[in-house]
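Predict the holo structure. Ligand: NAP.
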Amino acid sequence: MSHGMPAEPERPAGSSATVAVYGAYGHTGRFIVAELLRRGRTPILCGRDAARLEAMAVRFPGLERRVAAVDDPRSLDRALDGTAAVINAAGPFLDTAEAVLEAALRARIHYLDTSAEQRAAFAVHERFGARVREAGVVALPSVAFYGALADLLATAALGDWPDADAIDIAVGLDGWHPTRGTRVTGERNHGRRWVVEGGALRVAPDPPPMRTWKFPPPFGTQETVSLPLSEIVAIARHLRCPEVHAYMNLAPLHDLRDPDTPPPIAADERGRSAQTFAMDVQVRRQGRMRRAIAQGRDIYAVTAPLIVEALDRVMAGETPGPGTLSTAQAFDARDFLTALSPEHFSVFFETRT
Ligand SMILES: NC(=O)c1ccc[n+]([C@@H]2O[C@H](COP(=O)([O-])OP(=O)(O)OC[C@H]3O[C@@H](n4cnc5c(N)ncnc54)[C@H](OP(=O)(O)O)[C@@H]3O)[C@@H](O)[C@H]2O)c1
């Protein structure tokens, strides 16, 4: 499906197969590099730590490595030279997104990131929209478990409805072994969060409201607490709905609060941990409800197929045009989910009148 953006953009130099991954040696970055290779692209491994980049050669021999720091624009320019796009997997994105996106604009290449932080995603849309359009490229923030997945599920569930009365998202995790990046990002992301209320982004209530949620098996009925992340910003970009809220069950939040919870450990041949998730999205309109649920394994690992699928679609010219877009604004949500299910997660739809 093409919406008029050329599949082979004039400006982006280099091979369309060549993609810079910034933060390549991070936990999520490594999953992304592996997924790019699986799909026949050539990742260039980028990051600020030369020794950690070198260490990646053991697992990914033969890939080019480029050292670059966000406070050194010329190093970023060298890192992106000759690439068609950059995937920014280095977070906190409040510290990296603007510098890497500025470099992408100088290079006139596409930009994608995995931000869960609302303010980082919001800044990409609000501060860069016009310049990204002028450069003729695409910038997609939050193409990850938090951000894109709920955006895609909500948009697919909405289907042919022109608008909704309410969208409620609940994430169920059996536990959460956080990476260092998750912990640092949580500390850095201390500002008040937003929800959509009365049709606009508003500061979320404090203390965060609780709500009982009936997840599908094996999670079942659980208490959840409001935890709005970048999906709120993504959905508010393009769906007409006055109330958008997001919740999470309590077990993973206890894990996160415990400084002794260990980082994730690989438990299968793909390197995924044993963590399981359900992302349950309910869309209501005039007394009817449509629901879309994704269930799978490892919220870090699943981010890789999400962002690389988006990259492939950007390179194929599937977006409605250049500019900053949420994932479900950029692509056909149902088609996108279908492309990843059931290999990477299962998706179910339900309608109630
Ligand atoms: N939205 C989602 O669902 C989702 C999913 C996965 C990850 N994420 C986000 O992605 C980020 C990375 O997570 P992770 O699990 O991969 O953590 P990680 O394993 O700790 O990796 C973090 C990476 O970011 C780099 N980095 C951090 N701050 C940097 C800075 N100021 N300049 C340059 N590089 C910097 C780190 O480099 P150094 O080692 O040199 O510090 C490392 O490469 C976090 O913000 C996390 O919240 C979001």
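The pocket of NAP is lined by residues 23, 25-29, 47-49, 52, 70, 89-93, 95-96, 114, 116, 142, 144-147, 179-182, 185, 299-300, 303 (CB under 6 Å). The mean pLDDT is 95.
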